[in-house]
């Protein structure tokens, strides 16, 4: 999803989003076990929360913060 947080001091629009790892590949037997799996295009992608601003005049987007999500034990979800 995408959440609007308001405007920054320069009038740029502020947003927060939680991007996913993108589309899954077509089901295929990636590990030769006779079963089809759905591989990830970016298998090492770590889930994150991203904050960014949008300058409506220039249409420039600036990522202002990325928070990598981990479990309490330090592993990635």
UniProtKB/TrEMBL annotation:
Going by the entry's taxonomy, the superkingdom of the source organism is recorded as: Bacteria
Region: Disordered; residue ranges are: 14-39
- The protein's name: Alkaline phosphatase
User: Taxonomic lineage of this organism?
Assistant: Bacteria, Bacillati, Cyanobacteriota, Cyanophyceae, Oscillatoriophycideae
């Amino acid at each position: 999803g995408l959440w609007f947080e308001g405007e920054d001091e320069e009038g740029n629009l502020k947003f927060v989003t939680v991007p996913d790892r993108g589309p899954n590949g077509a089901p295929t037997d990636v590990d030769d076990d006779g079963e089809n799996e759905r591989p990830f295009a970016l298998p090492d992608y770590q889930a994150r929360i991203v904050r960014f601003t949008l300058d409506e005049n220039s249409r420039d987007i600036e990522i202002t913060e990325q928070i990598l999500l981990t479990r309490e034990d330090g592993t990635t979800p």
